[in-house]
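job 3f2a | input accepted
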Amino acid sequence: MPTAILTQPDLRVRLTSERLEVYGPDPETGDESLLRPIPLHDLERVVAGEDVHFTSPALAELLRRGIPVQIFSWQGRYLGGFLPALQPAGQTRIRQYQRTLDPAFALQIARRIVAAKLYNQRRVLQRLLAGRPQQEPPEPAATLTRQTIDRLEGLFTPVRQAGTLDELRGFEGLATACYYQAWATFLPAEFPFERRSTRPPLNPVNACISFAATLLYSEATAFCHAHGLDPALGTLHAPDDGRWSLALDLIEPFRPALVEALALDLFSHRILNHDHFESRDGGCFLNPDGRRKFFLQYERRMERQFLSEAVGHRTTIRQQLEQQAVMFKTALENPDSFEPFLIN
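job 3f2a | predicted structure (344 res):
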């Protein structure tokens, strides 16, 4: 069990020997009872709702074992978390500050990030198109997808030759807009997606994309901290108050393979339906039951092993996400060593 997901209201978590014990209201009697023991030896992280109560010994043991705890509000918003004590990384931070202020370094890393995201967007569309029955004459959606694949292919050279970060961001925005237009044609008709909307998401598809991106972002932030990096100092995403810009950078190539692919699966396989969403605060959000189903599918996808052609061995998306932080740290001295995540 790499991740323990605790979202049921009024849970109490305490430490007993080498395991966590999760107590909560019995579904039948309402009395508090032991719902599940969780061995600590194979636990890697904990995701909990804001109304889950941890005893101090339980929390201390999690931190002692290097297990981070992520806390989400009852509305599904990431509030923050508890990270194990980290080794001081003063020299790494100083080098990162120097490099972030170097326009040539920032542009080189950002180009590679956008090129990898572009490659992954193209591969996702190629896979989706290959799985769609061929018809003569081709369906308009299939024609649009082929045109989009060709258009994304044509953006590789401009991306790699972009002379400024603003120019590069323009190409990234253009590619993503084209990609979403073709990607949306693979969604079921009852879940239309016309455009990306955030803060708030305006429909179920946007709600799932936003929630998956939030989970990925929180994990990338934790990995940056764990490897002595300042997650606020990005390249493609300029450093700014109120966001972890480096974490946003590192998750960009993972969006097609994790965020959009997961959302498409959830709707195409009828894992989620309209009953799993609620309208509030001017937007559309997953309700508690929807979040439970979402967490399960997210975790399965993050931990699913695959043979990566890029790294030459079996791995998982979560392992590759952490590896991005490791490679970025190495790139502070050798920028050519940074290779963003690529799907097969």
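job 3f2a | The chain has two domains: 3-82, 90-337.
job 3f2a | closed
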